[in-house]
Specification:
297 residues, 5-stranded mixed beta sheet
Length: 297
Amino acid sequence: MKADYLIAGVDIGGSHITTGLIDMNDIKLLKETVIRRRLNSQGSAEEILKVWIETLKDVIAQSPVEITKIGFAMPGPFDYEKGICRIKGFNKYEALYEMNIRNILSEALQLEPENILFRNDAEAFLDGELLGGAAKGFLHAIGITLGTGLGSSISHNGITVDAELSVTNYQGEIIEEFVSTRGLLRTYKELTGKMLKEAKQISDRYETDIDARKTFSIFSQDLSWFLQKFISQENPDVLVIGGNIINSWDLFMNDVIKHLEFTVTKMPVIVKALLGEDAALIGGACNFQDQAVHIEK
């Protein structure tokens, strides 16, 4: 196996880093190489980078061949071309603001800077699902990720890009403040006065807590509004939905689909993501696909 055909894919989340080796011969994640570590995204730059670098060194050490390339799925705002962090005002990774992450990692890992590439995490997610997941075989697709924030992406005829719709104006704020984990937590607090730590706590109470049910009902209304606009704008054949909140799929998606059936002229196929975090790892590595392998889409 050539070294260029094994690439390290990396997914940077709001509270974790996940990495694994991607076999670019058949665009496949080598599951036995995956490492996932939690971190404090509100910590110092030194703390964050220490976890990133140690995790990357560990995944590279597992490879049977030399790893020369790393592809990141990275949340924004981020200068993906230059590798400079622009995250500010999002309560995560702010200590990295204006730092050139590519140069720091290049020096720490002894890799050429041009062999460390970055792309938006929602974009990487959709590309991964198109290549080997729920959207495989579709040429016109949109994707969203429902997690700490709201990610959105578009793919038409093999070209996948970040849709950057999380800042869409909604009720005097941005839609991400409603359609996300923090949106769920805020709604539940407004209904009960209780501030929970994660969305799973709300879903766990669904059967016994009327306010938990109201929270997901409001969430489905907000999500329906957003998806109606997104679908009408792009007219896709398929919509892929990923992110941690899809673990509660049955608590909100039936209402969303019913709403869309009344408001969307051409209803796309709506599918739950199949690959989980694997999609972002694959999509991150596929930043190198032009050099590594030709992919027919």
